[in-house]
Amino acid sequence: MKIRKSVLGGISALTLASALVACGDAPDDSAGDDETKTDFLPCIVSDAGGFDDKSFNQLGFEGLVKAADELGAEYKDVESNSENDYAPNLTNLVDQGCDAIVTVGFALSAATVESAKANPDIEYILIDDAADNDFDGTKDADNIKPLLYDTAQAAFLAGYAAADYSKTGTVGTYGGQPFPTVTIFMDGYRQGVEYYNEQKGADVKVAGWDGENGSFTGGFEANEKATNTATQILGQDVDVILPVGGPIYEGALTAIADSGSDAVMVGTDADVFESDPKTQDVILTSIMKNMDVSTYDAIMAAGNDEFDAEAYVGTLENDGVAIAPFHNFETEVNESLQGELDEIKAGIIDGSIPVTSYLTP
Question: Model-level pTM?
Answer without folding.
Answer: 0.84
